[in-house]
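Obj.: predict assembly geometry.
Materials: sequence records (below).
Method: joint structure prediction, all chains together.
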Amino acid sequence: MNFIDYYKVLGLDKSASAKEVKNAYRKLARKYHPDLNPNDTTAKTNFQQINEANEVLSDPEKRKKYDQYGKDWQHAEEFEKQKQQQSQAAGSYGGGFSSGRQGRSDFSDFFESMFGGGGGSSSRARQTKYRGDDYTSEIHLELINAYTTHKQTLTVNGNSIRITIPAGVENGQTIKIAGHGGPGINSGPNGDLYISFVIANHSKIKRLGNNLFQTVYLDIYTAVLGGEITIDTLDGKVKLKVKPETQNGTKVNLKGKGFPVYKSEGQFGDLQVTYQIQIPAHLTEKQKALFEELRKIKD
Amino acid sequence: MQIDNLIALDEFCAKHEIEISFVDSLQQYGLIEITTIENAWFIDSNQLLQLEKFVRFYYELDINLEGIETISHLLQRVNALQNELVVLKNRLGIYE
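Observations (raw structure tokens):
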């Protein structure tokens, strides 16, 4: 624990008047105030230091004690006790700095050792609790990951946070995790953590809201004669009956096979399948002959 | 707008020991929006943090209304730039 030169922190000399202390504090507060320096930890540390310096130098009693003991602050308690005993012997109470600790404070160990916790503040500035900064972060997901509710561990400013990502989260959607932002000042509340989701496009499936769109390639024989095919969806394999004489570009709507609706358990959008018919290539002689037969029949 | 989300300005001012005319001035500068219901003034709860910030600027840091207006614009730009920086850093992180 080191001695802190509060005069130096505020850029003053020991003879500074109360007005000069106030002016110096205000000037530096305007420079380092957390409201004016979002997400700047250096400014926050500087602000805590000048706040502490002001706490001592703007209070005549604290300043007197600080000036009296200075670098010998470690012996201040002994001196105080001796002084108090002498005062009590004389039948009077001498006052002193006996303020009790009132919860967690953001003062340095040096300050707390000399003045106790809490600081016994009286002015508006010294009583103010500052909310911590809000943090922002991004989570990148594949479409399949956004399809199911799952947990993910996120590291924000060195802290690991395990969050549940609900199924159906949208690309660009932001969720707030209250109290996981920057720490507050003077026991103020923590800020919040805002997480934005970036969901990568799927190579075969397009998403629009809760509806999915998928192109399925059909061979010409199934398209003409009909049949049964199996397609891969985000929910696994699905069997489809293809009607005979299905035309290129035919769309089929599969109700409830789309994307889960955000925070609505059991509700899903639709999956729209578009058939794209593939013309066969590299035909054998026999296949060519059969197609010729078909052409003759057509003519 | 739901009434549950509204905060009575006379209560806010009493708690912070400030004049309601200060909040009115903030409205005139376009820094906050006040809702009037049956002659009583309210602000939406999502403006509360912003309003408390303006109170600190004015009463603790001696910044006048013109200064608050300027700072408000600059802070919006700082926040937007910081968010953009986070997004870009995260994107770069994918390639590292």
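Conclusions so far: The radius of gyration of chain A is 36 Å.
To do: check interface contacts against the pulldown list.
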